[in-house]
Amino acid sequence: MSFPKAGKVYDRGMENRSARDLTVFILAGGKSTRMGADKAFVEYEGRTLLARALELARSVASSVWIVGSKEKFAAFAEVVEDVFRDCGPLGGIHAALRASPTELNVMFAVDMPFVSLDFLQYLTAQARDTPDAAVIVPRGDGRRQPLCAIYRREFSVAAERALRAGRNKIDPLFDEVRTRVIEQEELEDAGFSSAIFRNLNTPEELELEKRRA
């Protein structure tokens, strides 16, 4: 269930409202199997991916949480752990929404270092402009990007229903709730490239990005 394309191009000066109605959750609960080390503590351009994500998150909202292990992350920010363990990112999103103090919730993966402040402000503006949408999700490289999206707390109901049924994929749930998809053309019109959604999964990808930098 999708909303029509927005009819205006984003102006980076338009987003001046308080972010007190917003919580940012950094999804850091993955097993990092392909990286061979915990991605949250992998360094890129002199800082860990977690440090970069926290800095970005705190520039967007005062309420910032990490979704992952309290043992690993409690020293860095508020932490919420999955209710449904070993269910992938959907389990993390569900736990985050259950714990959230706000209606609007940015979810983004710790291994996405190219997401910018401008983009998160743009995403937040889109969420405020579509108050009936349970999810505001961008599309990049031909696919929706559920790990860099905004969810309203009501999405936790659909997520829990799916998790209890053993269904752990996020994308199919977008057809069950009101979803605002920001198409790639819209992103480009607003000045954003789908390259911002690149993530770092392997040592080879990390080295490639270091050489590009």
Keywords:
single chain; about 210 residues; alpha/beta; Spore Coat Polysaccharide Biosynthesis Protein SpsA, Chain A; eight-stranded mixed sheet; two-stranded antiparallel sheet; about 20% strand; disordered N terminus
Characterization of this structure:
- It is a single chain.
- Helix content is about 30%, strand content about 20%.
- With about 210 residues, the protein is an alpha/beta fold.
- It has one domain: Spore Coat Polysaccharide Biosynthesis Protein SpsA, Chain A, CATH 3.90.550.
- Helix 2 links the parallel strand 4 and strand 5.
Taken in chain order, the helices and strands follow as EEEHEHEHEHEEEHEHH
Residue share in helix: 25-40%
C-alpha Rg (nearest Å) = 16 Å
Mean pLDDT equals: 87
- Could you please say which CATH topology applies here? Spore Coat Polysaccharide Biosynthesis Protein SpsA, Chain A
- Based on DSSP secondary structure assignment, what is the total number of beta strands? 10
Give the helix tally: 7
Describe the secondary structure blueprint for this structure.
Blueprint: E1 22-27, E2 43-44, E3 47-48, H1 49-60, E4 63-67, H2 70-73, E5 78-80, H3 89-99, E6 104-109, H4 117-129, E7 135-140, E8 143-144, E9 148-152, H5 155-164, E10 179-182, H6 184-189, H7 203-212
Parallel strand pairs: 1-4, 1-6, 4-5, 7-10
Antiparallel strand pairs: 2-3, 6-9, 7-8, 7-9
